[in-house]
From TrEMBL:
Entry keywords, A to Z: Aminotransferase, Pyridoxal phosphate, Transferase
InterPro entries in alphabetical order: Aminotrans_3 (IPR005814), Class-III_PLP-dep_AT (IPR050103), PyrdxlP-dep_Trfase (IPR015424), PyrdxlP-dep_Trfase_major (IPR015421), PyrdxlP-dep_Trfase_small (IPR015422)
Pfam families attached to this UniProt entry: Aminotran_3
Any one GO MF annotation of this record: transaminase activity
Source organism of this protein record: Candidatus Burkholderia pumila
Similarity comment: Belongs to the class-III pyridoxal-phosphate-dependent aminotransferase family.
Cofactor(s) the protein needs: pyridoxal 5'-phosphate
Keyword ATP-binding applies: no
Residues in the signal sequence: none
Name of this chain's protein: Ornithine aminotransferase
Lineage of the organism: Bacteria, Pseudomonadati, Pseudomonadota, Betaproteobacteria, Burkholderiales
Length: 473
């Protein structure tokens, strides 16, 4: 492996037969798992040291290019501790020698500690009491959001009589460009045909979409659906729609309207939780009826998510929240150790400060290269770089090119809905979610590499423009 790292530092191109036998099949054929965009890139990730990953790229001529890149994603924003996960092992060394595999019908000390910590963090952020919250665990963010949806749809339904006291409330409000998961329940809250067409809709519920962060549209939608709104589902920051923040005024109006309407508010923090310089991206002091957590909660080690709801606005009916994997003792011990590491090293405050600096630097790059980047948005270490109009749908190509320049980012879909005015649409957006532990040097170097790439791409664009002008003449 040391030899590969040495080759990668010089981006050496190797013959396929030079690779270790264990790597050849994977580099040639992939790992057999299809991605959700319907294709695979030619890259294989082999190792990680510190903030950098070692990668191999299969070339069209059959050879392999080695390289390294700063990992600015952590795998869909899950790896918030980056290389620091190695320190967690000390906390549970030998745990497997005595770990129970009990399910959630029985108590475990490890899960109690984790539940207590999450409730405390939630209460601190929302300025409520620990005792105000109930909490259960699920496996994935999709599953967490599906359970949250079940909570609000069962609110007011009486099992014994079969009567729904809130049956007149048949509207759930979601946001254009939002992403809430893959399962059939959360699929109802997506406004993109490639994910929804051909799948059945909930017969008794209508989903109405609003524009995230737009005060006028918020008022319009609530007015049009007055008396019928059962729940509103929002993200702390609109993620897949292009890393869009809502203003304090928008949040205040949203909470006020939900209160007047007696509508339940679900805050989906599966992506945004722990990423934005605080536990939640939701403004401090705001207390929604339900919060979902995921992705980062498992530190990139395994899938785990959580659903928290406030009493008495929501109650979990017996049996509905049961899951096969509900923070088993080993999982709970690992997650609790990770959250303890995060708190002891003040990583929220660190990421808030460094994130503000990084966003400022990236905005300067966008100003210098407006033909490449249109805008930079974000908070803490959840940062979005929106592509310029001429590159609006070229996110995956640019992601791969940036990877060759030494920075791993992800791509957000943006918002291209024809139901919205052009001024409200958002181009594909590069998402940077560095680990909260990223070194200042790595972060600065990664931003420098993005600037270098933008400069080269701008030169190519200028060249194409000159050729077009010449041809037109």
């Amino acid at each position: 492996m040391d030899e590969l790292w040495s080759f990668a530092s010089h981006r050496k191109v190797m013959e396929f037969d030079e690779l270790d036998l264990g790597l050849r099949a994977c580099v040639r054929d992939g790992d057999g798992v299809a991605d959700h965009y319907g294709g695979r890139t030619p890259f294989t990730f082999v190792d990680q040291r510190g903030d950098e990953i070692l990668l191999l790229e299969r070339l069209d001529d059959g050879r392999v290019r080695t390289g390294t890149a700063y990992n600015m994603t952590g795998g869909y924003g899950t790896g918030i501790l980056g290389d620091d996960v190695k320190h967690l092992g000390v906390r549970f060394a030998g745990f497997l020698d005595h770990a129970t595999t009990t399910n959630d019908e029985f108590h475990s000390v490890e899960r109690f500690r984790l539940v207590s910590r999450i409730k405390r963090l939630l209460a601190d952020h929302t300025e409520t009491r620990d005792a105000d919250w109930e909490l259960t665990f699920t496996s994935t963010g999709s599953e967490a959001m599906d359970l949250a949806l079940q909570l609000v749809l069962l609110d007011g339904f009486h099992l014994a009589s079969g009567v729904d006291a809130r049956r007149e409330r048949d509207v759930v409000i979601a946001c254009h460009g939002a992403w809430h998961g893959w399962v059939l329940g959360t699929n109802q809250m997506l406004d993109r045909r490639q994910f929804t067409d051909g799948l059945p809709r909930m017969a008794s519920t209508r989903v109405v979409f609003m524009q995230y962060g737009d005060l006028d549209d918020l008022q319009t939608v609530f007015s049009a659906c007055h008396g019928r709104i059962r729940a509103v589902v929002v993200e702390g920051i609109l993620g897949d729609g292009g890393v869009v923040r809502g203003s304090d005024a928008w949040w205040e109006s949203l909470f006020g309207l939900c209160s007047k309407e007696n509508a339940r508010l679900i805050d989906d923090e599966v992506l945004t939780g722990f990423r934005t310089g605080a536990m939640l991206a939701l403004p401090r002091g705001r207390a929604p009826d339900c919060v979902t957590l995921g992705k980062a909660l498992g530190f990139g080690l395994f899938p785990i998510s959580a659903v928290a709801w406030r009493r008495p606005s929501l109650l979990l009916r017996a049996g509905v929240g049961m899951r096969t994997f509900n923070a088993r003792p080993f999982q709970a011990a690992v997650v609790d150790a990770g959250l303890d590491h995060l708190e002891r090293h003040a990583l929220f405050a660190r990421s808030a400060g460094l994130g503000e600096w990084a966003i400022g630097e990236l905005r300067e790059i966008a100003r210098n290269y407006p033909g490449v980047f249109k805008a930079v948005r974000g908070q803490g270490f959840l940062i979005g770089i929106e592509l310029a109009d001429d590159l609006a749908r070229q996110g995956h190509r640019i992601r791969d090119e940036l990877l060759r320049h030494g920075v791993l980012v992800e791509v957000e879909s943006g918002i291209f809905s024809r139901k919205l005015p052009r001024s409200a649409r958002v181009n594909e957006t590069l998402r940077l979610t560095p680990p909260l532990t990223v070194s200042e040097l790595s972060l600065a170097d990664g931003i420098h590499r993005i600037a270098t790439y933008a400069s080269r791409l701008a030169e190519q664009s200028d060249f194409r423009e000159l050729v077009t002008i010449k041809d037109d003449a």
